């Protein structure tokens, strides 16, 4: 009777680990290389989708509304 419980817990832990890996590798807020790219969020274009789920946002039609540094 513990086999389903162990299965659900392992699926939950596995999905949490995969989500944390996704955040660490693809999030613009994380900088692994401080010398060459200290501020990676400044190099994003307005058409880059960095959110996990975008319900009604069309990223291809967005325009740049901030200055280039």
From TrEMBL:
* Transmembrane region(s): 6-25
Give the keywords, sorted: Membrane, Transmembrane, Transmembrane helix
InterPro entries in alphabetical order: B12D
Protein name, UniProt field:
NUA4L dehydrogenase
Q: Which organism is it from?
A: Haliaeetus albicilla
Its taxonomic placement starts with:
Eukaryota, Metazoa, Chordata, Craniata, Vertebrata
């Amino acid at each position: 009777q513990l086999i389903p419980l162990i299965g659900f817990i392992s699926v939950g832990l596995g999905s949490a680990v995969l989500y944390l890996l996704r955040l660490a590798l693809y999030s613009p807020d994380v900088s692994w290389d401080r010398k060459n790219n200290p501020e990676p969020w400044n190099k994003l274009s307005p058409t880059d989708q960095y959110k996990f789920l975008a319900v009604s946002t069309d990223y291809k039609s967005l325009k740049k509304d901030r200055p280039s540094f």
